[in-house]
Amino acid sequence: MSLPLQLSYIELENAKDVKLVEFAINGATYPVPRNQQRSDTLRKDLDEPLTLAAGQLSISVHRKKSRLRFWHQPPFETLTLGSGDVLSRLEGQVFRRRQGEILITLGFVSRTTTADMAPNQSSSSPADTESRQSTNEKLTVGRSISTDITVCSSGTSEPLHSEDLQPTTRELIDRCPRFRVLVVGKSGVGKSTLINRIFGLEVAHVAKDRPGQAAIEKELISPENDRFILHDSRGFEPAEGSNYGVVRAFLEQRKRMPDVKDQLHAIWLCFQVPILKYGERLLEDGVEALLKEGKEALGDTPTIVVFTKYDRLVSFVRKQKVKDPEAEAKRYLQTYCVEPIQDFIGGANISHVAVSSKRKGERGLEELIGITQEKVFKKFSSSENTVSAVHLAAAGAQRMLPTLKIELSMEVGRQRYWRALASSANFQNYTMLNCLGVIHTDIVLVWNFYDLDDHLNSKEFRNLMMSMVGRLDAASETTADPAPLPRSDTIAFNPVPLLTLTPVILPFAACMILVTWAYETYQRLQKVHQKFMAYIVDLTHVLEILFLHTADARGKKLTRRAIKLAFRAYYDSLWMGNVHTEIRRFESRVGAQDPILEKITSLISSDGAEVEVRAALEGLPPFNSERDEEWDDGQQGR
Question: Which of 64, 310, 361, 605 could be 19's S-S partner, Cβ–Cβ 3.0 to 4.6 Å?
């Protein structure tokens, strides 16, 4: 069979976990419906064959959202095939390729007409004569064959397996999908507020049980943050009976668990800072016993003592009219809280932090997250250069510190896909769309937004990011960075931005990829490292803006509008222009171990990044989870 190829049908088997499939050819997009007789199969039979000449066929696969939002396969991926790719591996009239667990079959037809044959009839060979037995046009549909063929994007015969290009986070999340924390403390010490604030929940299921009803074995998982498991233990006051024995047995049980995902990853012992003048007591009998047993009871599980409601102590001290209330409160904490606990553990230092979880006067929470992360890293990491599954789970679960998300993204990238980007063996024969796709998935998974509808992994958001990176080429052609998109979203002399009233205008259409290099194979693209650098840095900065823009929206799902606002804020900023300029001017330093990776790191974590983020956030309306819009609503970039 030769060009032009005539596509007759497309079929995807073993696709029960697929939500939607579309294929695009010759500028038109077609849905592939699910087969009514076979629920694991999607198939589209074309009434009129479509010509695949010198163009490309792209197949977009959207997988169903799992409960955990962690996939063995990416939630969205696009397979792009050129006519040469298909023709070089065609068996009869059928092309097959396995994409992960999905088997994709393309059926083609032979199209012969009298007009096509007429000029050569007199000199035709017997074989030619036999092929023209009918003067009418014939359409012969190829039948499926069992041969499993994979085609390289470059058209070579080298086999490719999609398993070779999987997110680095895949194995880590399989090993430990959630960060497991035991919080010990009697009702009323502030556990709920603490958990809600740090892990971005609207209402944590703690401190709601009457004495005797709390079950420490129960895994408390919120759909608002499914990277986190809470085990709640009430305190040890006499009214709560033998709870000390329950906690002790639970600790022993979890220490014996063979899988790291089932072990305890951190213990927070929560005590309200006592006001002695009010007759309050710091420690209960059971806690004293637990602390005395120390290593034997707690083992080497990262344990932090959390002194809650520190703001209450500061307010009390201020009423005493002392000269320096803050200094006096610190002295009080050391004398009446830290030292008594150290006495129980034989004078050893114990990790501790005083916190206030109320919005006004909030303090100590970032320190608690930092101490927990440090102890988790020391406990569960086998190498300084390797991200542990628990470390990833812990950083992903917390929703307060964007810096931790950024650091973990870089550590995950260093493990595999960000290294040697100019000559990486990981990406040979893959299109840039697939190469950047796996990097995109890794970065988004680390951030762990409450993204119920999977907007950050959508085709539209990925298209926008590719188009943003495309500004590298546009600016180099004009030797200057493009001016920011003219703003039509604010009213002069009116402090209320129109962004609160109208759809967000984007500089690009989200429904398509505007850069042709997305379909080029990695090794064929000039200055390929620049594309990787820009995509990684741009995506990280957009997510950082988005994270801070939605930081106060506990328990509120992410919207497309919020993503568009963050994207637009970064695109319009001098920050993006400066980043792209530095990337275009970048030259590898002689003697550097991995200069491209070093440059990416410096661009992401530069000293001025925090100032740039704050500047980008200025003028954005408050996050409103009740209002959303389509990707291309108000689109100027069409």
Answer: 64
Report CA torsion sign: 605, 606, 608, 613.
negative
pLDDT at 600: 95
- Beta-sheet pairing, 266-272 with 179-184: parallel
Q: pTM for this structure?
A: 0.72
Q: List helix spans (H) across 212-358.
A: 243-255, 285-293, 295-298, 310-319, 325-333, 339-344
CB 269 within 8 A of CB 284: no
The pLDDT value recorded for residue 386 is: 78
pLDDT at residue 145 in the model: 25
What is the DSSP secondary structure assignment for residue 273, as one 8-state letter? P
| Beta strands across the sheet bearing 28-31 | 28-31, 18-25, 56-63, 76-82
Burial 529-543 (b: 16+ CB within 10 A, else e): bbbbbbbbbbbbbbb
Cα separation, 390 vs 265, whole angstroms: 7
Instruction: Give pLDDT tens digits for 141-160.
Output: 332 322 222 323 333 323 33
Is 534 in a helix, a strand, or coil?
helix
Determine the 3-state secondary structure of 221 from DSSP. strand
Terminal CA-CA length for the chain: 38
Residue 122 burial (C-beta neighbours within 10 Å; 0-12, 13-18, 19+): exposed
Crossing angle of helices 402-415 and 528-549, in 10° steps, is: 150
Q: How far apart are CA 547 and CA 269, in angstroms?
A: 29
- In 3D space, the residue among 213, 292, 216 whose CA is nearest the CA of residue 253 turns out to be 216
CB atoms within 10 A of CB 34: 18
The residues, ordered by sequence, that sit 6+ positions from 444 with a Cβ below 8 Å of its Cβ are: 456, 457, 543
CA distances to 287, 499, 503, 593, 601 from 560, rounded to whole Å, are 47, 14, 11, 40, 28
**Low-confidence residues of the chain: pLDDT under 50:** 67-72, 112-162, 207-213, 239-240, 478-498, 637-638
Q: Which of 406, 394, 448, 474 is nearest to 181 (CA)?
A: 394
Residue type, 378: K
Question: 557, 472 in Cβ contact below 8 A?
Answer: no
Beta strand spans in 320-405 (E): 352-354
At residue 114, the pLDDT reads 33
pLDDT for 228: 94
Instruction: Convert 575-614 to b/e letters by CB count within 10 Å (16 or more is b).
Output: bbbebbbebbebeeeeeeebbbbebbbebbebeebeebbe
Residue 129 CB coordination number (10 Å): 11
Q: Which pLDDT tens digit goes with each residue over 34-68?
A: 887 788 899 999 988 888 765 578 898 888 765 44
Q: What is the pLDDT of residue 282?
A: 81
Q: Which residue is associated with the tokens 């010509």?
A: 51
User: Angle at CA 576, nearest 5°, toward 523 and 415?
Assistant: 45
C-alpha span between 441 and 467 (Å, rounded): 17
For residue range 122-140, what is the model confidence (pLDDT) as tens digits? Answer: 444 444 434 434 333 333 3
| Nearest-angstrom CA–CA distance, 422 and 409 | 20
51: left (phi over 0), alpha (psi -120 to 50) or beta: beta
pLDDT of residue 15: 85
DSSP string over 580-599: HHHHHH--PPTT-SSHHHHH
Q: Are 274 and 340 in contact (CB under 8 A)?
A: no
Asked whether the beta carbons of 168 and 157 are under 8 A apart, the reply is no
pLDDT at 86: 78
